[in-house]
Amino acid sequence: MMTSQPGSYLRVAVVLVGLLLVREASASPIDLGNGLVYDALNDLSWTRDASANGTNDPATFSLAGYNDFRLPTIAELQSIYDQISGANGCVGCTGNQAPFINISDFYWSSTPGVTPGTVWVLFFQTGSQLEFLGASYPLNWAVRDGNSAPVPEPATLTLLGLGFAGVAARRRRKRAR
Length: 177
Known about the structure:
Elements: H1 8-21, E1 30-31, E2 36-39, E3 44-47, H2 74-88, E4 95-97, E5 100-103, E6 106-112, E7 118-123, E8 128-133, E9 143-145, H3 154-176
Antiparallel strand pairs: 1-2, 2-3, 3-9, 4-5, 6-7, 7-8
Helix pairs in contact: 1-3
């Protein structure tokens, strides 16, 4: 015969509620509402307006109080293209593709090409990568490392609260004995 110990129902309830609240991280870029979009897959913040920086050096670019922007690598550009095309089902993902606006035909990366003096460029029309001379078409998309506007996660806060409630309930039971 199986018997349950005091508090085991509470533990099971907490685990079940936790499982209901926990959800997988979104693979889609998240508009932070401050001119930046968070890419959770690469832990990067991209400018929402893909052409905001134009042909300027990203190191001189400033937005939402941040001034530590850089050029993305070719792998980062490919990843954001794949996320945009997967979420929007676009072919030739230029123009306005939620959550981004003003996506150009192609952007250069910080990844050096095989041939000296070249860099890898990603074409948003096709998703293909080609080598170009470093300064032949310097349109770039500014990016910075990390999440530029941490958003509180209600599920995490709820789980933390449930944990504290469980600890408090257990202490009350111990004192009542």
